[in-house]
Specification:
Aspartate Aminotransferase, domain 2; 4-stranded mixed sheet; 14 helices; binds pyridoxal-5'-phosphate
């Protein structure tokens, strides 16, 4: 693109696309491969947020590209979900239910995370005949009305009220508080096993097993929101596998489609049978789109074939160690390093977070802030990240912190 085309693209974006954050965009993206994003002016950036937990196998992995081209040449959309048996849908559902534990043998495929959350809420209400939900402080589950109702931040919820009633928020990690509100009208407790937008918060080891027990004792379903945490992000297929629990419903999206839009919620066939009464209790036009499913099957095979679960755990542990060393060198700026696998975060003084994020971008590394955790910077590169790319990232982080220390920012 020549400079005029670049400026015209920025103008067009500003004029014709709905703006949800103020300000004209600074970068026009022309390509993305592996961990690298290329802008129209020829600059290269390391993507250390994976397009927000999507590019786990890297951007435009050749095997995903091939699978998409092959499936597109066969057919894309043929009919609304559930009318025909479509091999790509069967393939991805079989793979997911093969790695999911404990009877989670059935998948409903959607297009996005929030849509899968909506489906899981409907399923929990229909199956239990109850109305209420229990969710967690700092939790985030999406922007459509049902998902918004169970998402914590009042600032995002209040302008859109009235939302779902009968939702209680309790502190993440607090079993006593959860025990007080889960009752005979609770359809489900919904939890991110590791909170994403809440700041990559890993709970104590007794929290999820305790929550599982409370739900079992009181007849409520346990929904695990794995939209950010699945597909190797935390070193496992699902982050809840870090504890000895099996949720009743598991929701995923983001990395599932290998870069294409695909979500899913998993449960037992027995729980899902409630959607047959009456028939068509739940439906979507594009959910489980065959091209997205073909991309997802390719991404799944890459995660297995390139051993990316182990890579996430090992590289994540190494990166965390290096972040801790950086924290020791800059204790006045970094107050915490957290996370699991290649799903990490650091806490900075809130007023310095955006200046540091911008400085890192200027130096060629993309990181980002979090919706529900002021001062936290997300660090979640593709699981295919190379050792040399980790070196560049640490170098840029330290250079940016040095720029703050020397008063240049
Ligand atoms: C934990 C969690 N759940 C649900 C969602 C919503 O997913 P989507 O943006 O695909 O609707 C998100 C999005 O960031 C998320 O992080």
């Amino acid at each position: 693109m020549d400079p005029d085309e670049v400026e015209s693209c920025k103008d067009g974006f500003f004029q014709h696309l709905a703006q949800t954050v103020p300000g004209r965009k600074e970068l026009v993206v022309t390509e993305a491969r592996g961990c690298t994003i290329k802008s129209a002016d020829g600059r290269l950036f390391l993507d250390f947020i994976s397009g927000i937990a999507v590019a786990n196998v890297g951007h435009s992995h050749p095997k995903v590209v091939q699978a998409v081209q092959d499936q597109m040449a066969r057919y894309a959309h043929v009919n609304v979900y559930g009318r025909f048996a479509l091999p790509p849908q069967v393939e991805i559902a079989s793979r997911l239910t093969r790695v999911a534990p404990g009877g989670l043998n059935t998948a409903y495929l959607t297009s996005t995370g929030t849509e899968a959350i909506e489906g899981s809420l409907k399923l929990a209400r229909k199956y239990t005949g109850r109305k209420g939900f229990v969710a967690f402080e700092r939790g985030f589950h999406g922007r459509t009305l049902g998902s918004l109702s169970i998402s914590w931040k009042a600032q995002y919820r209040e302008p859109f009220e009235p939302l779902l009633e009968n939702v209680d928020f309790v502190p993440f990690g607090d079993l006593d508080a959860a025990g007080e509100v889960v009752n005979h009208d609770t359809a489900a407790v919904i939890v991110e096993p590791i909170q994403g937008e809440g700041g990559v918060r890993v709970p104590n080891d007794d929290f999820l097993p305790g929550l599982r027990q409370i739900c079992t004792d009181r007849g409520a379903l346990l929904i695990a929101d794995e939209v950010q945490g699945a597909m190797g992000r935390a070193g496992k297929w699902f982050s809840f596998e870090l504890w000895d629990i099996v949720p009743d419903i598991v929701v995923l999206a983001k990395a599932l489609g290998g870069g294409l839009p695909l979500g899913a919620f998993l449960a037992t066939g027995e729980i899902f049978s409630t959607f047959l009464d009456p028939p068509l209790s739940h439906l979507t036009t594009f959910g489980g789109n065959p091209v997205s499913c073909a991309a997802a099957v390719a991404a799944f095979d890459i995660i297995e074939g390139e051993d990316l679960l182990a890579a996430s755990e090992e590289k994540g542990a190494e990166l965390k160690r290096r972040l801790e060393t950086t924290m020791a060198q800059f204790p006045e700026y970094i107050s915490d390093v957290r996370g699991q696998g290649l799903w990490l975060a650091i806490d900075l003084p809130p007023d310095l977070t955006m200046p540091i994020v911008k400085e890192m971008e200027r130096r060629g590394v993309i990181v980002g802030s979090m919706l529900n955790s002021d001062g936290t910077v997300r660090i979640a590169p593709p699981l295919v990240v190379a050792e040399a790319e980790l070196d560049v990232f640490i170098g840029v982080l330290r250079a940016s912190l040095l720029a703050v220390r020397s008063g240049k920012l």
